[in-house]
Amino acid sequence: DAGVIQSPRHEVTEMGQEVTLRCKPISGHNSLFWYRQTMMRGLELLIYFNNNVPIDDSGMPEDRFSAKMPNASFSTLKIQPSEPRDSAVYFCASSFVGLETQYFGPGTRLLVL
Amino acid sequence: KNEVEQSPQNLTAQEGEFITINCSYSVGISALHWLQQHPGGGIVSLFMLSSGKKKHGRLIATINIQEKHSSLHITASHPRDSAVYICAVSLSNDMRFGAGTRLTVKP
């Protein structure tokens, strides 16, 4: 298996632009997680899906952030409009069941200028 | 006060030394995870445990639910163990993370 796939690996954009991060979980995994990592706040869980349904999005910072999982093999995290404070590494992870052992993607390093 | 506290924040060891990283938490959890983040940024899940002890190669993780404490041990440490080790706890529908322990193992 190729593991969790994220794209793009790096993104540089200007403040106000829309940013879309993509994730393909490991085939057969039922849960998908989006995390953000910054120097100041460390790792934070933004949202997670179980069987394509969002379970808890209380970690989503504000309305500028949205996440979708239209099918079992694809998820997006969208930021619109982006702000410099959104600069971070965004990780996607998947697991077979809920908050069990998770497999992390390589991350997307986002820089908003 | 953070819900998940790790100690030490930074640790430098000589190759071959026995290493212990500690994690204390203040909330009710369903499981505790130990993650390893490599210098390149990739994250690997090392252990998930809800009781007792688990061992994988030179790594051992223990948890004491009553004391709300977990330890990660590395025996015969090697420079390739140099990484940030992160403790995370699973709540009912959420996760909380420690700030991480940066381990450097010198040859």
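qc> The longest strand of chain A covers residues 42-50.
qc> done
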